[in-house]
Specification:
The protein is of the alpha+beta class and 186 residues long. 50% of the residues lie in helices and 15% in strands.
């Protein structure tokens, strides 16, 4: 299944346990006498056609990502794994904030027989704004532990991925220019 924003938002609602709001939106389609929380959820889905949401839910059920029990939809193990991958894929790292002078360096050594996982990790890091220092070394000026842990949780073998915070004058000059150009640091 492709990584679309709608699929991610539906999975996110299921993880948060607020999917009932989404199904109410599909069925009702109006805001009369609804709570503030419902209105916020509605704003999230307002840009999507209810038929599109319903179609996506049916598609996810057929793929084994969701299972329907009476009126509720529940995530399967496969659905939870997809959500975890999509959560890392749609990760937004902080940009244009004051920089503390340190870089987060993510180093990984994933073997060739796990090339798909390695390429997936590279795509996530590039999409999030990390700069490729080498093929298996990526740098970012101010990522937080919780954001990085979303990425690292995808890899059960934690020995393959290493995260360090460093101050290095040798690499700093070239990296500072690049990150300022991309408006990631001030």
């Amino acid at each position: 299944m492709k990584y679309s924003r709608l699929t991610y938002e539906v999975l996110k609602l299921l993880i948060e346990g607020t999917f009932q709001f989404a199904t109410e939106i599909i069925e009702a389609g109006y805001l009369a006498n609804k709570s503030q929380d419902f209105r916020e959820r509605y704003e999230l889905f307002k840009s999507y056609n209810p038929k599109t949401i319903k179609h996506r839910i049916n598609e996810m059920t057929k793929l084994g990502l969701l299972e329907q029990i009476e009126d509720e939809y529940l995530l399967t193990k496969r659905g939870k794994l997809l959500y975890q991958k999509m959560d890392a894929f749609f990760l937004d790292l902080p940009k244009n904030i004051p920089w503390d002078g340190r870089f987060d360096i993510l180093i990984f050594d994933i073997p060739q027989f796990r090339a798909r996982e390695r390429d997936f990790l590279r795509n996530i890091l590039k999409r999030a704004g990390f700069l490729a220092f080498q093929k298996s070394v990526y740098v970012y000026p101010h990522a937080t532990e919780s954001e990085i842990s979303k990425i690292l949780d995808l890899f059960p073998d934690k020995q393959l991925v290493l995260l360090k915070r460093v101050i290095s004058p040798q690499i700093a000059k070239s990296l500072i220019y690049r990150f300022k150009k991309d408006k990631i640091i001030k």
